[in-house]
Amino acid sequence: MKHLTTNPSLLLQQGEHFAEINGITIHYYVSGQGPVMLIPSSGWGPSVNFVMPLTALERHCTTVYFDTRHSGQSTGPDDATQYKLENFVADIEALRVYLGQDKIFVAGHSGGGHQVLAYGIAHNEHLLGIIAIDAIVAADGVRAEEMMRRVAKKQHEPFYLANPAYYERAIALMTSPNRAALTIKEVIDATGGFYFYRPELAEAVFGNMEANDDVLKYTQQAGFQSKNLLPELPRISVPTLIIVGEDDFMCDPISQGQRMHEAIASSTLVLIQESGHMPWIEQPAAFDTACEQWFTEQHYV
């Protein structure tokens, strides 16, 4: 049985914890010093270990990395209706209350970015700031067109010219009518290289990722990540840092980053060159610089 942390003085102690919120057990890990920052996992299956550590954030904040419902070491219902975006937003809010924090930072990558932006729309009054890292904001036709343009461009890059079968398999999977039935490992094995400016990183990075196929199925059925947040983003008034890898095909800087930036008046957009979907891995120095400059400009140092 997981040992719940219930002593208020220990809730933000450095290290691993478990919390009971919204009828589920949430696994979280605390590192760093300063105001509290909540960082959810992507929501559709991976453990939050995948984004740890984000040392540039830990230097300024008490970072609380947590596994979203049914991912990693967190529990969750076996019911697809409980994996809608509002369920994930409610868990962030419940964790804020559980930790006894009036105002927090939130940060998230990809599907985690989708969550924290939605949280900002719903709970702007409880925020100090938002960091959205290669976040998905609108899975619409503009995004689909830009994604395929970027994928087509990759065909002529050295890695894919040397490995034409890899490119062909990836395209076949992406266009397959049966792709929703595939496991996370099958998808990553076939398309993982597309997530990186340097595709050869995919095997090592994704090889360490823990993921839950049940959660993927539930979130697909629930439509998680399908909501277009753009019309509601102007509700966010807190400082927001948008970081996007210039070569990201999944959450690209044009259909996602730029439109997000235009919708949030208080936002700063930073493009990380020679980086795909995971800039803290491919370009850690540039990622750190972007975070340090933003914290400095917001007088959080």
CATH structural class of the largest domain: Alpha Beta
Query: What is the tally of beta strands?
Result: 8
Q: Return the CATH architecture of the largest domain.
A: 3-Layer(aba) Sandwich
Looking at this structure, what is the CATH superfamily of the largest domain? Alpha/Beta hydrolase fold, catalytic domain
Helix content: 25-40%
* Sequence stretches where pLDDT stays below 50 over 5 or more residues: none
Question: Strand-residue fraction?
Answer: 15-25%
- Give the strand order of the largest sheet, numbering strands 1, 2, ... along the chain: 1-2-4-3-5-6-7-8
Major sheet size, sense and barrel closure: 8 strands, mixed
Short description:
The chain has 301 residues and is α/β, with parallel strands linked by helices. It is built from twelve helices and eight strands.
Structural account:
- This protein is 38% helix and 17% strand.
- It has 301 residues and is α/β, with parallel strands linked by helices.
- The chain folds into two domains: 8-139 and 222-297, Rossmann fold, CATH 3.40.50; 141-209, no CATH class.
- The chain has an eight-stranded mixed sheet, sandwiched between helices.
Layout of helices and strands:
Blueprint: E1 15-21, E2 24-31, E3 36-40, H1 55-58, E4 62-66, H2 85-98, E5 104-109, H3 111-123, E6 127-133, H4 141-154, H5 158-162, H6 164-174, H7 184-191, H8 202-206, H9 213-222, E7 240-245, H10 253-263, E8 267-272, H11 279-282, H12 284-297
Parallel strand pairs: 3-4, 3-5, 5-6, 6-7, 7-8
Antiparallel strand pairs: 1-2, 2-4
Helix pairs in contact: 2-3
